[in-house]
Amino acid sequence: MPGAREIKGNVKRTVLREPGGPGQTGRAVKRFHAPGHLDSLRDGARARAEGQALETAASRGLPVPRVLEVVRRAAGTGQASGGAETGGNAGTCGGAGKGAAATSLGDATGERWELCTEWIPDAHSLADILAGHCPWPAGRRQGLKRLGHLLAHVYRAGLHHPDLHPGNALIDDTGQVWLVDLHGATFTEPRAVGGRAPDARWSEHLASLCAATRELLTAGERALCLGTMAQSLGWEAASSAPDTWRYEIEDRARQLRQQQCARRRRVWLRTSSPTLEFEVGACSGLRRRDLDQDQAADWLTQNTSPAPSDTHAYIGFAFESKQAARAAWTNAARLEEHRLPAARPACYDADGARALFRIPRACQGPAPEEHPQPPCPSPAALGHLLGSLHDRALSVPMSLQALLQDQSDGALLLAPPVQLHAWDRAALWPELKRAGATLGVETLTAPAFRAAFLAALRHSRSERRHLEASWGRG
Length: 474
What we know:
The protein contains 15 helices and 21 strands.
């Protein structure tokens, strides 16, 4: 439809906003376009299943947008081409009997299935709010409590969502939280209030949500959200040890987050939400979406790094092999997914053995090998960096050449190329001692290092208290 604006997308689905008439807010359109003939044959079933899930959720009182239609539409037009299922908020997504044939016809003729819902006015995704792109409409604390109440409502409604994350929720200007993406959701019978703790299946859903917010919310903020949910469901009063299930969810969330970020390295090797593939003549590469393509092309073909901006500069590296370049690129991507302080992947030469990285403009380093004694980092800066790595169960061999220092605030970042290893938690204290000895910084005996290290941990308060009590003793 003319005037439609893309909101987000990936290789299988794109969400657009279509404008409405005078006084209308328009509508949201999820367009299904799975790659590959066989996978695309199921797009119609996916669109109808998600539409039906939204209608079921609405019938159980959950705040979801109203379904307008599920339709097969010719690509690049606003015209439905048969197979449309339209109506109000009920009964619009049935008719599975004609789905397979209609979907096959749609794919054969270049048509796409679309799920159309009402547009929620003046709303922003929870992901954008947590990232700081938009303010909390009713304040941060109140917003987290409302999210907890929504989770309780979801639990009572019998909704099971295998992929709860901040991108699946909207908050409007009144502070109302909406669920907007029920892809893969299923329903059981509604639950009554009561009990002591979530069952295993729901614990996994909550762990998935906590995993997606580990670097966006503090442990205390997650505890506020889960505690509000528990109080709404009556769990706190019924349990003699109300925090036990939350600690278990936090432990599982950390494991899930490590797995998620490790898997998402593959996303950075193809066109996806963070990256775009591009070609210049016979050269092909990948660039992050917020890097200008002309700048990326100049680096790819002429090895000319982009000019520094007010906030960023760039460092290019040539590696001894394509495998080494790929490892450096995906390691930097994993650090970005974990929101760790490090150089960011900017552009990747898919044919050669080169990668370009983005660093803050105010950074100094990396220290050249012929300059053996650059300024030592402060204990507090090193404590924050190592605490952040420990929180994500990662380890990096420490050396002055492996670090960048932001001259504006003294913060430390990991310099490219980064070698990532899993952190052996049993070897925490020897690891910290080695890092301190290598860098000439007091670690275990420096109060500033300990305070910064503990503050960087985003796990439960109980874990921080345990580490503080056993500091340096194992």
